[in-house]
Amino acid sequence: MNWFDRVIGFVSPKAACTRIAWRQQLDLLRGFGYDAADNGRSNMNWRAVNEAADLTDRSARDVVRARARDLERNSDIFNSVVSSYKRNIIGTGFTLQVRTGNDELDSQIEKLWKRWTKKQNCDVTQQQSFNDLLRMAVVRKKVDGGIIFKKCYTKGGVLPFKLQALEVDELAGSVASPHTKGNRVVGGVELDQYNRPVGYWIEQYNIDGWEMNEPVYYPAKDIIFYYSKKRPSQLREISDMTQSLTRIRDANEFITAVSMKERVAACFALLIKRAVPLGGLVGRANSAQDSQGRKTYNNRMLTPGMVSELNAGDDAQVVDPKDSSSDATTFLKLIQRLIGAGQGLSYEATARDMSETNYSSARQGMIEDDLTYAEEIELLQENLMSEVYETFLISAVLSGKISIPDFWADPSKYTEHKWTASPKRWIDPQKEAGANKTALQSGIKSFKQISAEQGCDWKEQIDDMAEVAAYAKEKGIQIGGVKDVDTAEEKQKPEDPNE
Question: In what side-by-side order are the strands of the sheet with 197-205?
Fold first, then answer.
């Protein structure tokens, strides 16, 4: 009822009720055929508006990030989700496979890359290896919504190219004047007419993190902004854990309440009910013995095997709180399932509870979880790792560490590469090995595919197998699964009638 209806209701209540009834019927005829669009009693507190993504995120971004960081510091449930992502996306890292078509050049580049990824060479602070930077990137994206890597060209190390990790807080939201005429700045990101980032304004902090200097502009080619873009109008990051924050906090509050209740339930006390108070008019005596020589019970405790005697007229009453929170475990499991589902993961992946699984359910859950991780791995490789590798290779060519005479004629030919993920452990090695054997024999999978799934380079694996077989033959040992070629050829030779 609006103010006009109230005025009409003051003069004629019947007319006001008729007006409201007819307006409700008119709303139904206007096309509210969806229950989700109904403004009835069940949805009367559901107020939502359509806004651009950046306008929606702008007012909530800092608050959400601060709350996510608070849960990162204090919540084990929150960290179980984040750790699952970090563990399954990065693991022990990725192996670079260069594909220039020249095996010798590939080997040279891969060897230099392995050296560069050490913390002394890839990190401008010389504190984190490339794998450490990747793990931090995955965690910061889940918690903060993203992370910024600045390309630095300095002396020292294997190459002059290094990375500097920056937090999204360092984007200067106060800058309004663009670096280039015709552009505009939103949240520290300078955009052109197509909303394409052309530069970033970065705050300059002192080592204590308090005093600020003037923001500095960096062109987009020197900045890698790693975050997920979910809407066309989204310009900056928002925490990936946004949908789960309130439920995680509810779970933490519930656990705290249950813990306090359990602590109270674990308490056992004995109260003494006195028929006659001690101390006369003055009140009860605080000493261990009253004025008449009778013992008091101040600061006395129950001990195992104790035999004692009450004063005349005293009665003992036991205080033994009983626990009634038998459904706490079931409720917490439900909460954790919802939190995991909101992040695209199974309950087992986040809770580390395998008590209700068998091989089939665990395998199906792992397959679904891998699909979730695959999206993040693709984003990480395309938006961060590949750009870092291409800058690394250009820096290696310019510095003379790698000699490629015709590199600038066709750079894309030499930047071709592939990332091999670290291998995953098998749930049932015998079943997995049998499935791979069947797939290989039936032609469903090649040896190259199976090796990639195990995080191995198929060429290196064959070389290793050949090396092992040759050494075993030299020592006179038969290795299972490796065919003895010489022995087979000797068996196929026709017998010499002269022998």
Answer: 184-186, 189-191, 197-205, 212-219
Contact between residue 32 and residue 13 where contact means Cβ atoms under 8 Å apart: no
Q: What is the Cα–Cα distance from 42 to 34, expressed in whole angstroms?
A: 13
What's the token pair of residue 460? 């290196």
Amino acid present at 1: M
**Interval 226-245: pLDDT, tens:** 999 999 999 999 999 999 99
Q: What is the mean pLDDT of residues 444-463?
A: 79
CA distance 384 to 352: 30
Instruction: Check: CB of residue 373 under 8 Å from CB of residue 83.
Output: no
Between the CA of residue 98 and those of 113, 160, 392, 415, 464, what are the distances in Å?
Answer: 10, 21, 13, 8, 19
Is it the case that residue 286 has pLDDT exceeding 50? no
CA distance 157 to 212: 30
- The Cα–Cα gap between 294 and 246 comes to 58
| Pair type for strands 212-219 and 223-227 | unpaired
Q: Looking at residue 488, what is its pLDDT?
A: 43
For 313, phi then psi, to 5°, come to: 90, -5
Q: Please give the model's pTM, rounded to 2 decimal places.
A: 0.76
Greater model confidence, 445 or 152: 152
Taking the C-alpha atoms of residue 74 and residue 316, their distance in angstroms, rounded to an integer, is 43
Distance CA 233, CA 235 (A): 6
* Residue 402 to residue 53: CA distance in whole angstroms: 44
Task: For the chain, state the CA radius of gyration.
Answer: 35
Say if residues 15 and 8 touch (Cβ distance below 8 Å): yes
- What are 224's strand-pairing partners? 149
- In this structure, the dihedral spanned by the alpha carbons of residues 175, 177, 183 and 185, taken in order and rounded to 10 degrees, is 10
* Tokens found for residue 18: 């008729």
Confidence band for 261, pLDDT divided at 50, 70 and 90:
confident
Are β-strands 184-186 and 146-153 bridged in parallel, bridged antiparallel, or unpaired? Answer: unpaired
- Give which of 246, 98, 224, 253 is closest to 163, Cα–Cα: 224
Q: Rounded to whole angstroms, what are the CA distances from 450 to 88, 90, 138, 262, 463?
A: 19, 19, 27, 51, 16
